[in-house]
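hey
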């Protein structure tokens, strides 16, 4: 996680996901991409709504084309 911002009941996180493609990944059309063993990173943003100390909604934004490259 790089940074966090709070405005009222909304929390926004800036983060970077890292991982290795070790298993099949399902595409939106239902087909699977076989594992490649390649490492990858992608920057992301997560927005959460908080009520009574609990997350009630979350939205996660990232660049899927970066992952697929």
């Amino acid at each position: 996680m790089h940074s966090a911002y709070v405005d009222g009941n909304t929390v926004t996180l800036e983060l970077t996901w890292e991982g290795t493609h070790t298993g099949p990944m399902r595409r939106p059309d239902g087909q699977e991409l076989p594992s490649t063993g390649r490492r990858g990173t992608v920057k992301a943003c997560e927005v959460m709504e908080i009520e009574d100390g609990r997350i009630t909604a979350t939205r996660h934004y990232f660049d899927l084309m970066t992952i697929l490259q």
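The chain has one domain: 3-68. Residues 64-68 form the longest helix (5 residues).
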